[in-house]
Amino acid sequence: MPPTGLDHIHRNLTCVGERIASACKRSDRPATSVRLVAVTKYAPIETVQALYDLGVRDFGESRPQAIWDRKTQFPEDVRWHLIGPWQTNKVRKTAPLIGLAHSMDRWPLAELVSAESIRCGRVTRVLCEVKLTDDEDKHGFAPEELRGLYSRLAELPGIEVRGLMAMASLDGDREDCRRVFRGLRELRDELRKAHPDGPRLDDLSMGMSNDFEIAIEEGATLVRIGSLLFEEA
Ligand SMILES: *Cc1c(COP(=O)(O)O)cnc(C)c1O
Fold first, then answer.
1. Helix (H) or strand (E) holding 39
2. Is the shortest distance between the CB of 224 and ligand 1 below 6 Å?
3. Average pLDDT, stretch 189-218?
4. Is residue 84 in contact with ligand 1, taking CB distance under 6 Å?
C-alpha cells in the first residue's frame, strides 16, 4: 500500500486499469495488448514512488532533464519514456537513459539519435510522432513527409522504429479524436504494407486522460496517462 495521503493513487490506478480493460474488451482485444505509460511530468517524486510500489514500470516524462534526474532515483527496471520535444543538444545525455522515445519528429533528430546510439554501443527504440491536426503548436512529421523519409529512417542503424505516436487536438470533440487515432493506425498499416521487409511498427502510442478509451478502440498499444492518475477527487 502507498503511504498515508497517497491512497488516491492506488484508487486512480485501479480505476484506470479497469477502464483500459473494458475498452479492450469492447474492441475484442486482449487486456495485455495495451500498456499504461504513467505520465509523471507534474508529479512529485513521492507519487511516482507510490506508482512504482504499486507495480508500474513505465513512466513518461516530457522533458529530458526530468529523466536525467529521476533515472538515478529509481531501480533499473523502470522504463523511461520521453514523450515531449527532444532538443538536439540533449540527445547525447538522454539516449542511453530511455526505454522508448515517443517524440521522434524530424529527420535531423533521427540521424543524430542514431549516431549517438552507435557511439555508445546501443540501439534506441523510437516512435515517429505524426502531426495529424493543424494545431500550430503540435510537433511531428506530416504524413506525406513520413512516407517520403520512411525507408531512410527505417535503415538508420542506431535506431529501431517501433511504431507511431500522435496527439489529438485538445479542443477537438470525440469524433475529431477518433479521426486522428484512426488516421494514425491507417498510416501505420499503409507503411507496413509498402515496406513488407521493414519494421513491424507494432506500437501505436495514442490516447491521454481524456481520450484513451477511443484510442484503445482504434488500436493504441501505449496510452499516456497523467492527470487521471494523480487527481485527488
Ligand atoms: C502531458 C502529456 C500526456 C498526459 O496528459 P494527461 O491529459 O495528463 O493524461 C500525454 N502525452 C503527452 C505528450 C503529454 O505531454
1. strand 35-39
2. yes
3. 98
4. yes
d(CA 132, CA 178): 11
Would you state the cell numbers that stand for residue 90, as one nine-digit string?
540533449
3 Cα–ligand 1 center, Å: 25
| pTM, two decimal places | 0.96
Nearest to 104 by CA among 6, 201, 231: 201
pLDDT of amino acid 170: 84
225 lines ligand 1 (CB under 6 A): yes
**What sign has the CA pseudo-torsion 194, 189, 151, 167?**
positive
209 lines ligand 1 (CB under 6 A): yes
Helix (H, G, I), strand (E, B) or coil at 102: strand
Here the cell at position 71 is 533515472
Please state, in angstroms and rounded to a whole number, the distance separating the CA atoms of residues 112 and 89: 10
SS3 state at 135: coil
Which pLDDT score is estimated for 1? 56
The arithmetic mean of pLDDT across residues 111-131, rounded, is: 98
Closest atom of ligand 1 to CA, residue 62: 15
Give pLDDT, residue 136.
Answer: 80
pLDDT above 70: residue 2: no
Strand, coil or helix: 100? strand
Q: In the structure grid, which three cell numbers stand for residue 47, read together?
A: 507519487
208, 209, 212, 228: which to mutate for ligand 1, most atoms within 8 A of CB? 208
Helices and strands per DSSP (H, E), number in the chain = 9, 8
